[in-house]
Specification:
Distance between the termini: 8 Å
Number of strands: 12
Number of domains: 2
Number of helices: 6
Shape: elongated
Strand order of the largest sheet: 1-8-3-6
Largest sheet: 4 strands, antiparallel
CATH superfamily of the largest domain: Jelly Rolls
Length: 255
């Protein structure tokens, strides 16, 4: 039986601890730190291109290197950015926030990623970006970008390919949210997350609360609890502390 085949029965509450976020409206300015609000780590449906190491090193030298602690807001949606951020180290999230303070994550960012590119035309940003851990970025002024594209043709190709990939990934995410069941979305999420082999079984590397999982797949924490319990009863997963262990091989399609 595969993860993508929904087992029957079971609605007991899952034992994973949860940290339900209090409704919060993010009114902080870029550069400030945010203490609450849910962190949603939705996996990308389509891989997004990263800068090659040589090009990353070259761009890092041309910009202003800055380091930021975790939970620092670097870019706020609807604001105009005068910089293209090149991620050197750490991890960040690009997200949007509702009036009630609920976050939706568009993608996560790591070394070799860039953000702020939507401001290259002088328009406002459509996303906010916050650090998930201590991170460093090289800040390139928007006026530098055309010069760098001329000096490094691969950089222009990278930006073009990245925008295409983001459109493709966005379409796939909308399709998944609109057409797939919550069970299928959960199965896809679990199978796409980074894991490590422990005694021949795949254990997810990161500990995720039910709240975080629910935000990733667009459903309530209570629904996640019921679905995890069904998977456990069917022998598809096990819970080791707060880490999920996948007990069956990943399928390529629904059985």
């Amino acid at each position: 039986m595969s993860l993508l085949r929904a087992p029957e029965g079971g609605s007991e509450r899952e034992t994973l601890e949860d940290d339900t976020a209090t409704p919060f409206v993010d009114r902080r300015k870029p550069g400030s730190r945010r203490r609450d609000g849910a962190v949603l780590l939705k996996s990308d449906a389509t891989p997004i291109a990263l800068l090659s190491k040589p090009l990353l090193a070259a761009l890092a030298q041309r910009g202003t290197l800055r380091s930021y602690p975790a939970k620092t807001l670097l870019l706020h949606e609807a604001d105009t950015s005068h910089y293209l951020f090149v991620v050197i180290s750490g991890g960040l999230k690009a997200f949007g926030t509702s009036r009630l303070g609920r976050d939706v994550i568009y993608r996560t960012l790591g070394p070799g990623d860039v953000f702020g590119e939507l401001g290259l035309d002088g328009g406002a940003s459509s996303t906010s970006v916050m650090t998930l851990e201590r991170s460093s970025c090289s800040l390139l002024q928007n006026t530098q970008v055309p010069e760098l594209m001329a000096e490094f043709p691969d950089f222009g190709q990278f930006l073009f390919g990245r925008l295409v990939s983001q459109v493709r990934a966005g379409n796939a995410n909308v399709k998944q949210l609109a057409l797939d069941t919550a069970y299928v979305r959960l199965a896809h999420l679990l199978e796409s997350l980074e894991h490590t082999l422990v005694d021949g079984q795949r254990m997810l590397c990161k500990r995720l609360t039910q709240q975080a999982i629910g935000e990733r797949i667009g459903c309530s924490r209570e629904m996640v609890s019921r679905l995890l319990q069904r998977m456990r009863k069917a022998g598809l997963i096990a819970i080791d502390g707060q880490r999920i262990v996948l007990l069956r091989d990943s399928p390529s399609q629904i059985d």
